[in-house]
Predict the structure.
Amino acid sequence: MATCRDVEGWLIVSNLREFDLTLCFEEGVILTSLLALLLLSATYRIWALGYLPSLDISRKSRWRLWVKLTLLGLAIVASCFNLFIVLSLKQTASVVWPYILEPLALLASWILTRLNHRRTLSSSTILLLFWPCYTVSLAIWTRSFAQDHHSNDPFVILSKWAVELFALPAYALECISPDDSVKDNTENPTITANVYSMCSFAWLTPLMKKGSKEFITEDDLPALLPRDESENLGKDLQSSLEKHSSLWTALFLSYGGPYLLAGFYKLLQDSLAFLQPQLLRWLLAYISSYQSTKGTAHLLVGPSPLEGYAIAIIMFLASMVQTVILHQYFQICFETGMRVRAGLVTAIYKKSLVLSSDERGSRASGDIVNLMSVDASRLQDLCTYGLIAISGPFQITLAFVSLYNLLGWSAFVGVAIMIISIPLNTWIARMLKRMQEQQMKNRDRRTRLMSELLANIKSIKLYAWEYAFIRRVLHVRNDLELKMLKKIGVVTALNSTLWGGIPLIVAFSSFATASVFSSRPLTADVIFPAISLFMLLQFPLAMFSQVTSNIIEALVSVKRLSGFLHAEELQQDALMKSQKNTLNIGDEVLSIKGGEFQWNKQDISAALEDINLAVRKGELVGVLGRVGSGKSSLLAAIIGDMRKTDGEVRLFGNVAYAAQNPWILSATVRDNILFSHEYDEVFYNLVIEACALAPDLALLPQGDLTEVGEKGITLSGGQRARVALARAIYARADLVLLDDVLAAVDSHVARHVFDHVIGPQGLLATKARVLVTNSIAYLKYFDQLVYLRRGIILECGSYNDLISNSDSEVHKLVHGHATSGANSGTTTPGPSSGRGTPTTSEENMQATLVGELECIAEKAARRESFKKAVVAAPPKLRDPSSSGITKEHSEQGRVKMEVYSQYLHAASKEGFLFFVLTTVLQQVMSIISTFMLRLWGEHNRETGVNAGLADKYFLGYGLFNLAAIFLGGCSALLIWVFCSLRSSKHLHDSMLHSVMRAPLSFFETTPTGRILNLFSRDTYVVDQILARVIQNMIRTSAVCASIVLVIGFSFPPFLIAVVPLTWFYYRVTVYYLATSRELKRLDAVSRSPIFAWFSESLAGLSTIRAYDQQSIFIADNARRIDRNQLCYLPSTSVNRWLAIRLEFVGAVIIFITALLTVAAVVTSNVDAGLVGLVLSYALNTTGSLNWFVRSASEVEQNVVSVERIVHYAKDLEPEAPYEIAENQPASEWPTAGEVEFREYSARYRPELDLVLKDISMTIKPKEKIGICGRTGAGKSSLLLALFRIIEPTSGTIFIDKVDISKLGLHDLRSAISIVPQNPDLFEGTLRENIDPVGEHQDVDIWTALEHAHLKAYIESLPGGLDAPVQEAGSSLSSGQRQLLCFARALLRKTKVLVLDEATSAVDLDTDRAVQEIIRGPIFHDVTILTIAHRLNTIIESDRVLVLDGGRVAEFDTPQNLLENKTSIFRSMAMEAGLVQVQLDDADEKA
């Protein structure tokens, strides 16, 4: 032990000087330990910096470094001089160690300064923390040294401060970052921020400044740190999941490191929080002893006034340190939460790309999206508050230890009450958990309903089924969800009352026991610290219940997520891929040997059996078969989407795939075709030309850069099919799979596409191609034909072999439908000459020769650019990605008062008023009860004994507390059950009705994900979050007001300090609210694209897998998550920035109050009771102020959900009215079925061109009209006009002499029927799909199914009519879906029937049978309008309408049109090879 040369020796507190420490303690313990710490930590840091490379620094920065080093050098010299003096004059120093250590520590800091400045970007934390501590310690030492009578040597003091004189400017320069380059947002500011900036979150201030002046956009936000990018976060989780099967363990290993540090911070902060009541007790004891010795005229030496001020300073410092630690803890928790969510979303996305078909069948897209939106967010919420599960019990223990010191055993009466309340709480929590789980199921059910409703909105509008679907949704919403919400509300209100009331009851019972059994009088210095401890207990107890429910929710979510992440994946060996460097013509590209495949594990029979197939490079293979025979399944087996139970599938090279229902992304047409490949202009133009897309692109507003909506809604069916085909060509893959791509296009376009793309001279001639087709026009060009029946290859061989065998199915098919037999007059497939006029055979020869020469030249040019497609580089994070056709509606600036008033209106203004009133009264009761305590304490001090339970003041305290608890319960019930429920019902219902009344164009331009987000996330906020935050805000504002009033009333001078503090508070909140609001909005808007991308990817899984683009889509998903993180991180850090500043205000309030009380005690007479009352309120300010701004901004952030819902409920343009009472048609209308167009013109949206121009025609009753025309001629638009999906710009339509524009939409649409181009089915039973409204008998339904050729199939299903239909009808083939829609039309028995390519996905036999029904007795007196791409389906119509560019080009009988050599119809029929046959038939009849 070092020798102490001071008289007082090693005592801590000095006996010679007033309120001081001994010199030996100051020099030997405080100064020595600080210097030793600096020496050790600096040495370690120097060693660590030795491994880092030197950085380039600017000239200015180099100058700063030299000045710092010079100053520190001078300080070292001064320190050595100091050491010399002390060693030569031995008696001046009490302990020698600090004088020896100082030069050594300074030398270490010199080296550290140099290395840190050259090798890092931020100031040295060690030095920034050391100098302030050392300076304060030195100041304390100087006072003691100067007062000490033995050592009055000013020289030592001066030389000691000379070191400081040089060191402090060096410290000031050290505060500036070594890196002074101009900052842009590509770097995160935390990299260069110093320790003070990190603690006070000052690195955010530039952003806040900007936010208060202008609206912040995404470009203003700081970049993410590499460790926070979702790609890295996802990899961490993936690798942990591979090692551990438990999701909890994996999450902890991936993201738990910083979280443990946060836990340590939290426990430290808790300890500091419990230091405050001890300091309060110290101050009150000091005041009591000061007052008792004040009047005794120097007989007793009282405490020094300095002690009081010192306690005030310590209180201030303790609360500041506590604040800094608390917010570092919060920041880490939020960052961890964000990492957990990003990691999980990435993992869920990756998993969903490899789910097996079984799993995919049992999980609707909505469920998977819910895992991402709800469950991942729940785990994020758990990270935010989860540590309270550890810190809560710790705080409770601390509180009881402190209470025991104050009240003795009586405190444990309170403990007993708390322990009894815990099982009660767990019971309530369990009940809440059960309710929440049920509520989750209800919400899932509603989300699924909504997502289906939005997916099939077109059918719902055409069939006028809105009411039926609104009823379905409202049943789930009002009968299940809101009923449960009411129960949850009641339980939550009871729960919060219980937690608010328990601390009050505990305090009362503890005081009651103490007043009866304790001999010591309960005075102010016992009562008020005890009350403040009981108040501190309130937070862990209240939060404990929230955290238990959070943990319970998280457990449920982890179970769901774990189930999903461990779900069965696609069979890895279903497909053996091997790359060959070169493939030559004739090399095998695909071989299937003895293949047996099924969709689901539990299927009894295989979907495909004994499949043997070999496809070579340059071969064209056709797949034929009836509806449901397994054609599409064969392609699914080739791309590996099915379960392989036997055999092998080998693939050499890569695959391109065009599905039967084309999958179009929300992006430009060009992006859809390029599909993440680099843009090669020459080849791209060839592809556009070959797919006949040039005329279509010319019609789009921005050509191929036009955004097409989600699911490609702005394109017609034929255009979508060709875009998907163009994508398959552009990929230049070795094997091209085309699933009936010609069905959706007109016959002449089909001819063009076949010649230029698929046929022997087409772009794909050198590739292996498999085409599923129902058309027989092109069979002779196929190298190999495969005929499937019930999943078995019935026949396989070349066209000639099969056609020459009269028993073969292909022979029967071709001769049964010989409209294009050998005499079909089709030209040799060269590039077709557009609308060819009928040519003689010589001309034919010539054209062919020229065509072939052209072909050879074109092919030579084409081979050049026929290199494999190269994957394009991914876009940058901040590149403006498209947001769909319409940008999401996002307000800016303050949430308008109107939104609040609409919310209050929805919630009931009276209810809200009562709620505010009860909250204010509760606060008043609580203040009165505290005043009772003060009077009680003073009464006890004067009498010197406890009056027990009979004391009137104490009884008053109890009664007022009881009243406060009761009022609290009332206010909770009012807000939760009365207001919240009403607003939930009102807002959701009005939004649902408004969305259902929106015109179809709204759904075409708005991504489904965005509308779903409103119905899931925003509705959830209104249901369960908004009530809570409003309740918090009103309560905290009442608390804040009461604090200011109580302190101001007791110490009027305090009100002077209120003015500048209020100004500061106001400035900070203005800064904060402006920025925080925009950040929250950016966060919300950047979250939607994640959902949209997710649901879009789920719809196109097989396409993504076929093209082997999983990694590209995963990277795209990661980019969307990162954009969201970019917005989310600042939006949470902003809260920390605010809280630190507000808690500083709180600490200043405590400081001022403490100073005022000490001054009042020293100068005048103030009782300790009043001081206790005031300070116990002041100690609450920090928390209350913080909570007030937080809850106010939480209200504003969450009201944004109301804003968005109200925008949808109020601002959507509705369609025409549903029913117009005065214009209701007769119940039997239309009776005849006459349709008349009078000078009719229409466009889709006001800014677009006319699609129908000046159409006038009359269709007689019972007439069968065929409608044809090239793609984009306006065929489908004509039908939409009939249903008023598009409204006329001029002219009108009459049905049976009734002007349809005067009718209600519901009346009109339910009176005519349609079989749409895209058959939409819903999840549910077959019966609900055929008759959603439920107005038909089973007998009628079976009859309709029989006519639609589905009866046999449906009878074979296990449930018959009650057999389940999966989401979007994925359990049925395309042809079966079309036939089901046909059955719907048969059921409705209306006089006008519209068929929009109703049989495009059906094989020829079924098609013929359907055509016979249409022409048969059932439809004899029905007017039928048919759009068909197969001209043979309309060639027997009564009249044919040919449209061209939106006008009527021809309208006559098919016979007349075919005889007219200049007619468009004739040229189209020629291209389809129908003319010769028709004319021959006519001759025979003649």
About this structure: Residues 1110-1163 form the longest helix (54 residues).
